[in-house]
Amino acid sequence: MKSEQDLTAARIAEKVGGELKTDPGLTINRLKGAAAVDEDCLTYVQNRDYMEMAREAEAGLVLIQPELYRELEEKPPAILVDNPRLAYAKAYELMPDDRYHQPGIAGDACVDSRVEAGEGVSVHPGAVIRGPVKIGSGSRIAPGCILVGQLELGENCLLHPGVRVMGEVMIGDRVEIQSGAVIGSDGFGYASGDKKHYPLPQQGRVVIEEDVEIGALTAVDRAAEEETRIGAGSKIDNLVQISHNVEIGPATLIAGQSGIAGSSTLGRSCTLAGQVGVEDHLEIGDEITLTGKAKVSKDLQGPGIYSGIPVQNHREYLKLEAQLRRVPQLKNRVEKLSSEVEELKNTLSEYKKEQMGVENGRHRK
C-alpha cells in the first residue's frame, strides 16, 4: 500500500530529491496533469506552454526544471528537479492507494480452509481461493478473482477483477495484475506423430518477483519443467504472451501484443515495443531495445537498438528502409534508361542499314 501520511511539499521534495521553493508544510491531495490541475494538486511541467496552464489553474505545487523556473517572473510554489516527469512518477508512490482496500473476507467469497491470509488482506465478493494458498499482509483480491493451486502471494499485492492464478505460482511483494490476466496456465507443448499431437506435461512453476506489473489479458504460462520467471520491477502491457520456461530479467518493459516463445531469455533492462515476436530457445542480452513489430530469430548480445523482420541493428535497418523507399524512383529511372537504350538500338540499326546501302552502291559502281 502507498503511504497514508499527509502528503506535504517537504515529503515530496525528499522523495524526488528536489529543491523546495515553497512552504514545507504545504499539503497536496491529488496529482494531475497540467491541463486538469487545480489548487490542491501537484503537477509537472516540461515547457512554458504547460507552465502557463498550471499557472492559470493555480496549481498547488509544480515540479519544474531549474532553468525554466528562473525564467518565470511570477514564481509558483515549486520543487526544482532535473526530470519533472520522472519526479512526478516518484511522487505518485507517496499517494495512498485504497483501491479494493476492504480488509476481511467477503461473505460470498469462496475461500478454502487451507488458505493462510496475513493481516489486512482484502478478499472481495465472488473471489474463489482453493488449495494451500498463502496471501501476504495487505494484499487485495478484487471481485471475481480465481486462485487455485499451491500459490504464494506476497505482501501488498493487488489483483484486479477477474485475474486467474493457477498451478504452482510464487508472486513477490507489491505485484499488480490487471483484469483478465492468467498466471500459471499450461504451456503450449506437444509431441507430434501418427497424425496426432500428444500433449507434453507442463508441471513446472511460475515465479513473479517483487514490484512487477502485468497488464490485462496477458498470459504467463507455467514451465514444462523448472520455472517461468519474471524479474523484479518488470512491467508488462496488455495482451502479451509469456510462454513456458521463459526468463525475463529485472526492470524490463514489454509493450502490448508482444510474444515470447518457450525457453527464451531476456536480460536486464530490455524494452520490447508493441507486437515484437521472439522465437523459442533464444537469448537476448541486457539493455536491448526491440522496436515495434521486430522479429527475433537469433541470439542478440550487447546493448543496442534492433529493428525489422528479421531483426537487425537499428541503423542498418534505417539504411535499408531508406534504400527501399528509393525503389520506385530507381524503377522509373531503369524504365527510362531501358526506353532510351531501345531508341539507341533502333537508331543504330537504321544507321547500319544506311551504311550498308552506301557500301553496296559503291560496289556496283
From TrEMBL:
The gene is lpxD. The active site is at H244. Keywords: Acyltransferase, Coiled coil, Lipid A biosynthesis, Lipid biosynthesis, Lipid metabolism, Repeat, Transferase. GO terms for molecular function: N-acyltransferase activity; UDP-3-O-[(3R)-3-hydroxyacyl]-glucosamine N-acyltransferase activity. Belongs to the transferase hexapeptide repeat family. LpxD subfamily. GO terms for cellular component: membrane. Homotrimer. It comes from Halarsenatibacter silvermanii. This is UDP-3-O-acylglucosamine N-acyltransferase. GO terms for biological process: lipid A biosynthetic process. HAMAP family: LpxD. CDD domains: LbH_LpxD. Catalyzes the N-acylation of UDP-3-O-acylglucosamine using 3-hydroxyacyl-ACP as the acyl donor. Is involved in the biosynthesis of lipid A, a phosphorylated glycolipid that anchors the lipopolysaccharide to the outer membrane of the cell. Pfam families: Hexapep (PF00132), LpxD (PF04613). Residues 27-94 form the UDP-3-O-[3-hydroxymyristoyl] glucosamine N-acyltransferase non-repeat region domain. Pathway: Bacterial outer membrane biogenesis; LPS lipid A biosynthesis. Residues 320-361 form a coiled coil. It catalyses: a UDP-3-O-[(3R)-3-hydroxyacyl]-alpha-D-glucosamine + a (3R)-hydroxyacyl-[ACP] = a UDP-2-N,3-O-bis[(3R)-3-hydroxyacyl]-alpha-D-glucosamine + holo-[ACP] + H(+). Its EC number is 2.3.1.191.
